[in-house]
UniProtKB/TrEMBL annotation, chain A:
SUPFAM superfamilies the UniProt entry points to: MetI-like
Domain ABC transmembrane type-1: 56-236
TM regions (residue ranges): 12-33, 62-82, 94-115, 121-141, 190-210, 216-239
InterPro entries per UniProt: MetI-like, MetI-like_sf
PANTHER family listed in its UniProt record: ABC TRANSPORTER PERMEASE PROTEIN MJ0413-RELATED, ALKANE SULFONATE ABC TRANSPORTER-RELATED, MEMBRANE SUBUNIT
Keywords: Cell membrane, Membrane, Transmembrane, Transmembrane helix, Transport
Membrane disposition: Multi-pass membrane protein
One GO BP: transmembrane transport
Signal sequence, start to end: none
Compartments where located: Cell membrane
Name of this protein: ABC transporter permease subunit
Chief subcellular location: membrane
GO cellular component: plasma membrane
Length: 251, 268
């Protein structure tokens, strides 16, 4: 955005919203919105505390494990669905159901099946992220230029080589797009899991602060979480742009 | 009676006891109810360039892909070097109309990709690729990516890849149709010297009459509805006077006219 000849850096609009937040907070309209400055003071106060570090590690572990499985299972399944008519017919209805299903409703079932521990949280995280990764990978593989497939066949590529040396890379821009959205969904998954299954990690902090009306603590943790999710998403967006140069000229 | 050169070209169209590299016998192919190829038989002499020429819909690309093993034929036989083939094999290499390069790989890796798929160790395949990159005139572009190259240069990469696997049959599917006119002329000249130097059998699909007559030792004129080989033409153009003179040879002009006369009815 350019105002009076000055080019403003990206997301400068956040300043306006931050200012508005501060003003509303200062007027003391509602306990729910403490001034932004107070939230930041709290943020720096709690960020080094053992409770916070513990919450961060617990959340990060569950999140990373969940995302790992979502990617490690999602991409191959998506590639297979994109290449095999049979698998596609078998799995596509399920993927479509789950990608739009209110997965939160499934969490109690997971608790019954997998217990109240880390395992259920990781599975919840994976479930939130995996479907869009599968769908995007499938879409990416389906649009691979036909002659690239014929090329690998005509030069005698084994199935394995075709998947790892051609299909994966040819679908990479779509795969990364799917991973980016999947990861954002997984952030939702890990917090919902921590809130519903066992009160650990950031979920525990949210629960603690909200029930004790420590609103500036609550907002502080939320801002940290937003910032983390946003950085991951931006990083993946950056990777996506790195490969987009060939998304345009694959055909 | 003395035949004109052109008449003898058509009369001699049936090859005698030549060494046949690829032979197709009674090949049929249907797409559902559509007959793409019907009982087609053709011989491709070793070390020569045979063009498959015809209007769109005559099945020339289908035939080429069947020879490559990329499409299954419904009946008939494809015999390459005396053996019946049903799938792709190392004795045939394909050059694609749209180049089919890996956009994420350098020229070097693209050219060496056929060898990579065959499990040739890296240093060995890169040596070989290097040689063919030079051969097609792309020295210095080893580390460039396809999107940094012009259409003509990309097709040179495709050609180098096909040459580097050392197949003795090269299948070219309208390889010059996606490159501009000047580049195309240069390509045709290069193709002639390639045929002369490489001792390979070239099967070349084109819809350009001039291109076919210019480059070919033998032209299979295909016609659609139903698909069939209408005529085999062996242009006997004296190429010793240099490639520049080919389009001025009376033989060249006569054959172009004659083919056009056959095709005219099929072009809307």
């Amino acid at each position: 955005m350019v105002i009076m000849g000055y080019k403003l850096p990206n997301m400068s609009s956040l300043l306006i919203w931050g200012l508005l937040w501060e003003i509303i907070g200062q007027t003391g309209l509602t306990f729910f919105v403490p001034p932004l400055s107070e939230v930041f003071v709290t943020l720096f106060k709690i960020i080094g505390t053992p409770a916070f570090v513990k919450a961060l590690t617990e959340t990060a572990q569950a999140f990373l494990a969940g995302v790992f499985f979502a990617i490690a299972i999602g991409i191959p399944v998506g590639i297979f669905m994109g290449r095999s008519r049979l698998l596609d017919e078998l799995l596509l209805p399920w993927v479509n159901i789950f990608v739009s299903a209110p997965l939160t409703a499934l969490v109690p079932v997971l608790m019954v099946l997998f217990g109240f521990g880390m395992k259920s949280i990781i599975i919840t995280t994976t479930l939130f992220g995996i479907w869009i990764i599968i769908l995007n990978t499938r879409a990416g593989v389906r649009q691979i230029n036909r002659s690239l497939i014929e090329m690998s066949r005509s030069f005698g590529a084994s199935q394995f080589d075709a998947f790892t040396k051609v299909y994966f890379w040819a679908a990479l821009p779509e795969i990364l797009g799917g991973v980016r959205i999947g990861v954002i969904r997984a952030v939702k998954g890990v917090i919902i899991g921590q809130l519903l299954i066992s009160i650990v990690g950031f979920g525990a902090l949210f629960e603690l602060y909200a029930s004790n009306f420590l609103m500036s603590h609550f907002w502080a943790v939320l801002i940290v979480l937003f910032a983390l999710a946003f950085s991951i998403s931006e990083f993946l967006g950056y990777l996506e742009r790195r490969v987009s140069y060939y998304a345009a000229n694959r055909s | 009676m003395v035949m004109s050169q052109t008449e003898s070209a058509f009369a001699n169209a049936h090859p005698t006891e030549q060494d046949i590299a690829v032979s197709i016998r009674g090949v049929s192919k249907n797409y559902g109810a559509v007959e793409a190829l019907k009982d087609m038989s053709l011989d491709f002499p070793r070390g020569q360039l045979t063009s498959l020429l015809g209007p769109s819909g005559c099945g020339k690309t289908t035939l080429l892909k069947i020879i490559a093993g990329l499409l299954k034929h419904d009946s008939g036989e494809i015999i390459v070097n005396g053996k019946n083939v049903t799938g792709p094999g190392p004795n045939r290499a394909f050059v694609f109309q749209d180049f089919a390069l890996l956009p994420w790989a350098t020229v070097m890796r693209n050219v060496a990709f056929g060898l990579e798929l065959r499990g040739v160790p890296r240093s060995e395949r890169e040596d070989k690729a290097e040689k063919y990159i030079k051969g097609v005139g792309l020295a210095g572009f080893e580390n460039a990516y396809p999107h940094e190259l012009s259409g003509g240069m990309r097709q040179r990469v495709g050609l180098a890849r096909a040459l580097s696997v050392d197949a003795n049959v090269l299948l070219l599917d309208e390889p010059f149709s996606a490159v501009d006119e000047q580049t195309r002329r240069k390509f045709q000249e290069d193709l002639l010297s390639l045929v002369a130097n490489e001792k390979k059998t070239f099967i070349f699909v084109t819809h350009s009459i001039e291109e076919a007559v210019y480059c070919s030792d033998q032209i299979a004129l295909l016609l659609p509805r139903p698909s069939r080989v209408h005529e085999m033409i062996r242009p006997q153009i004296d190429r010793s006077k240099g490639v520049d003179n080919i389009p001025r040879e009376p033989e060249y002009l006569d054959i172009v006219d004659q083919i056009w006369a056959s095709l005219r009815a099929y072009v809307e």
